[in-house]
Amino acid sequence: MKTSFAAAAALLALSSPAFAGTLTVCLEGAPEIFNPQLTSSGTTSTVLGQIYDNLVAVERGGANIQPALAESWDVSDDGLTYTFHLRQGVQWQSNDAFTPTRDFNADDVVFTFARMMDEAHPYHSVSGGSYITFNTKLADALAGVEKIDDYTVAFTLTAPLAPFIGIMAHGSIAMTSAEYADVLQAAGTPDAFDREPIGTGPFQLQAYQTDAIVRLIPFHDTWGEAAGIAENTPMVDAIIMAISADASVRVQRALAGECAISYYPNLADAPLIDASETVELVPAQVASSGFITFNQTIDKFQDIRVRQALAHAINMEPLVETVFNGMGHLTGAVVPPAFWGSATDLAPYAYDPELAKQLLADAGFADGFTTQIWAVPVSRPYMPNGRRAAEMIQADWAAIGVNAEIVTYEWAEYIQRSRAFEAEVGMFGGIYDFPDPSQIPNNYFTCNAEGTPSPSNIGHWCNAEFNAVMQAAGEITDQSEREALYLQAQHILYDDVAAVMFGGADQLMAVSTSVNGFTPAIFGSSRMSGVTVE
Fold first, then answer.
1. Do the beta carbons of residue 260 and residue 24 sit within 8 Å?
2. Bridge partners, residue 296, by sequence
3. What start and end residues bound the annotated signal peptide (predicted)?
4. From residue 396, how far is each of 321, 356, 389, 470, 516 by CA, in Å?
5. DSSP alpha helix (H) spans, 296-382
6. Same domain? 129 vs 102
7. Residues 495 and 517 reside in one and the same domain
8. For the chain, how many structural domains are there in total?
9. Would the pLDDT of 333 be above 80?
10. How far apart are CA 259 and CA 56, in angstroms?
11. pTM: predicted TM-score of the whole model, two decimal places
């Protein structure tokens, strides 16, 4: 990406102590793209969540849905039509290639969804055209998006969809500028739309040094500031986001005063942070799920006995104790226990190496086999130390004759390769972006009617019964009925050994005592508007 400042200047700004008014943030990975529609990465969303807005949002630090670019909405009696009444006077950001001539309106909402819905749309295939969240959650459910007037938009569904409003709060369903798209299309540079972002949020991109630094500056014409909403108002002169994959380095930068907010420190470093007089350990009770999946495009993993053997060979209790540093929980359920709809009766698969050996022999692998296990390269609430977890699994599998090579890549490449079904045994997971238990099961384990896996279903597991139960749960509104269906779906996944679940833990952040007004998000990404630095 073209940057506005020399890389050396950006690095100098990070290496020297932060001057008053600059918020420095240490991230565990780099943004893979600058259009939220094209990503489901939590790391990328941390950056883009400062730039873009949705029609609705999850309240900061809570679970309720509140207005954002839409001031209100109505739902038809049959549950098929949602009518959004848009906020007026909302300004768009600008850059060297674009100066907006009008405010945000219904044309932008229609454009945002037309790009994702219409394969003939001129922007549909730009940047690869992979709309991960939309394709997983809305593509089959959304019949149309209609402009009623400049500030009213109606969404029509093919069937009732209980989590629809929650889905609309997902970071990847943010609003984009139709006028900006037209300008770039006329200039012959449509791909810049996804590299040089224009949003309505409290901060805008000033510079990006690939895999090193993102620099954001305040957008004081944002609607939140205009409306006098403190938590949506930029209150610092700049945000410098430093990218460092090493959790220990992020902690050291926090302790040295180089980073006011550091994401995902090693859990083992918690006592070090607690002992500091200048940095606090801030927990966020995020809901997340982590797991390994077996690539069922590979013959041996299509045999349930092989999957059962590998599951029973993992000694999960010491793995969770070690990797989560005593702060995790054991589970066999894909929906975390903090959620309604979690199958809390599902325990991890019993550790039984002898049974595992017998299952392998029954499947024709009495002498074992060779495979790979991929290790998540960044620290996440659902997997704080992917390398260590992979090493422990590698040792457990060696005991039953399975030789597993550990493979990893830089985070963006890891995601891309995993979604291309390159991982034989893939380590993956997700954080809930809105308060409904459907998100992770739908994102990571469903297939569409044609049998195509959802983009994050890296194990290529397609189970018709599971898909039908998940679809039924999304089409009704009675919570007790939905809960029963989600319990059924989790048992189907568990019985077929589609994945082996890890226990999750709270997200930890190292936050300087000089920071005020920062509230970690429980769902989605944390916003830096409303935050000040002394």
1. yes
2. none
3. 1-20
4. 15, 11, 11, 33, 46
5. 304-312, 316-323, 353-362
6. yes
7. no
8. 2
9. yes
10. 30
11. 0.79
